[in-house]
Amino acid sequence: MKDWLWWRDGVVYQIYPRSWSDSNGDGVGDLEGVRRRLDHLSWLGVDAIWFSPITRSPMADFGYDVSDYCDIDPLFGTLDDFDRLLAEAHERGIRIVLDWVPNHSSDRHPWFEDSRSRRDSPRRNWYVWRDAAPGGGPPNNWYAVFGGRSWTWDEGTGQYYLHTFLPEQPELNWREPALVEAMHDTLRFWLDRGVDGFRMDVIHALAKDPGLRDNPEIEGARPGRFGQQHVHDENHPDVHPIVRGIRGVLDAYDERMAVGEVYLMDPTEVAKYYGEGDELHLAFNFSVMKTPWDADGFREQIERFEGLLPEKYGWPTLVLSSHDEPRHASRYDHPEHGDARARLAAMLLLTLRGTPFLYYGEEIGMRNVEIPADRLQDPVGINIHPKASRDPERTPMLWDGSPDAGFGSSDPWLPFGPELGRRSVAAQRDDPASLLCLYRDLLALRRETPALHRGSYRGLDAPPGIFAFERRHGDSRVEVALNFSDAPQRWQGSGGPVQGGLCTRSGAALPGDTGVDLGPAEGVALILPGG
Ligand code: GLC
């Protein structure tokens, strides 16, 4: 076992590239913008950046519809810009993780254009084509995630093609060996350039029922995507050999990592994607992100996943926010304790066992921004319902209080929202009591404390409302107590003397032992003697 393994012991920071830093003033962030802001990430102390897709795309789903897996979209820059950014990030000890979208391409990808050109195209079988059902209509009862049926009729060749998301995102056929080889090559393209890992989009959907059978309907539910049990259109057992094939590509290189978006709410199924150490290195466990603000709820989800992970190869992930979910500072907001809760959530994320994934802006407590109807961008908000839009969590980073927020354009693709001028990196960086400085302090504590970045997890008894646990590695031992309730609580812990650690309450002195009075939404992480 290595002493320090970046993807296991480190912390990953997700950048939504459209919204982080805009170097050319076109209203959309870009790679050169990121390069100029690398200082922020070094200062914060993260180990890796995960970029939401920067490959070529018509942007029907903002990059999750790829028209060339081996080039940078001109909106974000060029391959040269990418190489420069990668080199500078590596010089700083920051790894680069790319989003890889293997489940579907863009309908404008040359592969799909070829596939749909004629029935006997050599690439016909790279996508999933079927005749209409007897009597007409789609071949089965599947529905798309982004509205409507999963099947779109192609007039030219007289068949339907499958898509789990938009019609502009046709499903790739992973049962076709030539497609598998072509997709493996796209990984090698970036691995050869020095990319350290991939976040693999909807990886659990790569295999479907070979007979494309109907999904069973849920009795009494409204017909549609949510009225079915998704037993045939995702998580088919054949997905595992496919993932092993992908892992084989990465294993030919040194220390590369695959983290999968296994968007299944059943952690038992998610845990299977670690295989025998021959599938994913990490899988997102979204059940934690879906947990309401509740000590027992978090404890239950964490312990459930801990219990399911294969002992030898399993290592959890910790995520509270992403480009697909409302920001957690908004989800967990509270009229009185909102800011304290954001601080407590930071401690939860950075002291538990597993690799934390931070979402840009959470380090300054960015909230969701309400988007006026005429500025909606996300196809989900447009097709399904404005309330389902993911735009509110994708607004530009607030760097400083100037009219362009230091983002680089005063007319960005999504509005800055009401916090412009109130919340920013610049305002928080020099204030030791800020959320931003708490994130930095927690990251530093985590890095220098083996119990926190490597240690085992053990739940501790605690009064209702408190989630308490111990982390331990060799002589290094930490007890963490997090008060999720809105009332003050006393926590006893195992004793002392406290040798270091952090309190989420700004300015609070560390206690001498583990007997602590915790205010509403307050937490402590206390370093204790080992043994
Ligand atoms: C994943 C991405 C999401 C995207 C979808 C389709 O869930 O995280 O943003 O829209 O896949 O690619």
Give an overview in words.
An 8-stranded parallel sheet has the order 11-10-9-5-2-1-13-12. The protein is of the alpha/beta class and 531 residues long. Helix 6 (177-193) runs parallel beside helix 7 and helix 12 runs parallel beside helix 15. It has helices spanning 6-9, 31-36, 38-44, 79-91, 110-117, 177-193, 239-251, 267-271, 286-289, 295-308, 328-331, 338-351, 379-383, 425-429, 435-448, 450-454; strands at residues 12-15, 48-51, 55-56, 68-72, 95-100, 129-130, 151-154, 159-162, 197-200, 257-260, 282-283, 317-319, 355-359, 456-460, 466-473, 476-483, 489-491, 500-503, 516-518, 523-528. The protein folds into 3 domains: 6-104 and 176-441, Glycosidases (TIM Barrel, Alpha-Beta Barrel), CATH 3.20.20.80; 110-162, Oligo-1,6-glucosidase, domain 2; 455-528, Golgi alpha-mannosidase II (Immunoglobulin-like), CATH 2.60.40. Residues 61, 64, 101, 165, 201-202, 261, 323-324 line the site of alpha-D-glucopyranose.
Keywords:
531 residues, globular, Oligo-1,6-glucosidase, domain 2, eight-stranded parallel beta sheet, TIM Barrel, 26% helix, binds alpha-D-glucopyranose
Mean pLDDT: 97
- Helical content class: 25-40%
Instruction: Identify the CATH homologous superfamily of the largest domain.
Output: Glycosidases
Low-confidence stretches: none
Q: How many structural units, i.e. domains?
A: 3
Gap between N and C termini, in Å?
22 Å
**In the CATH classification, which architecture of the largest domain applies?**
Alpha-Beta Barrel
Oligomerization = single chain
Shape by Cα distribution: globular
Q: Approximately how much beta-strand content do the residues carry?
A: 15-25%
Count of DSSP H/I helices: 16
